Structures are given as structure tokens and as C-alpha cells.
Amino acid sequence: QVHLVESGGGLVQAGGSLRLSCAASASIFGINAMGWYRQAPGKQRELVARITSGGSTNYADSVKGRFTISEDHANRTVYLHMNSLKPEDTAVYYCHADRGYYGGDWGQGTQVTVSA
Known about the structure:
Layout: E1 4-7, E2 10-13, E3 18-24, E4 33-39, E5 46-52, E6 57-59, E7 67-72, E8 77-82, E9 91-98, E10 104-106, E11 110-115
Parallel strand pairs: 2-11
Antiparallel strand pairs: 1-3, 3-8, 4-5, 4-9, 5-6, 7-8, 9-10, 9-11
């Protein structure tokens, strides 16, 4: 199991930027993929961005061109760089580690609120 701790959320005006961090308790080498998900009130949790162990990335259509996922293996941290934020980006953002056959792990989430 990998313990994940998110940070970097907060309140920002529309058009602003934030960088979310996800610190893992163990090496993220060997993990199939790391991802960022979000859940807005009354909505289902959705994938925002994902990066595989090979470095391939994919993004939700709603964030393409605005968000970037990256990872720092030395510091066991995954980042989500969010630019040009919109009010509809408001949600709790969760980090996820996909360990394939061994399951997956979630962080506790960090709140992002974008004001109009």
C-alpha cells in the first residue's frame, strides 16, 4: 500500500493558477500509473489527468491545454499544474496510485475553489 498526501489546494480567482502536489510514502517506481481525479458536489469522481510508468499522459477534455501532470521520482511526488482555472474546476482533487493487480490507493483530497 502507498500512502498519499495531497497539498496545494486553495481559493483562486478565475484565470489563476495552482500547483497541486501528491507526496507518496514509497517509491512511485513500479506503480502502473499515478492520477489526479476530482469530485465536485453532487457529481461523480472523474479522471483529470494520468501519467503511466512509461511517462505517457492523458487528460480529461475539459482540462487539456490548461493542466499538466508531472512526476518527480527522486522526491516521490506527483504534481498537477493548473492554469487558466475556471469556476467549473472547483472540486476536491484526489491523488491515486494504480498498482495494477495489487489494487489502488487514494489520498485524502485537497479542495480547489475557483471564484468567478
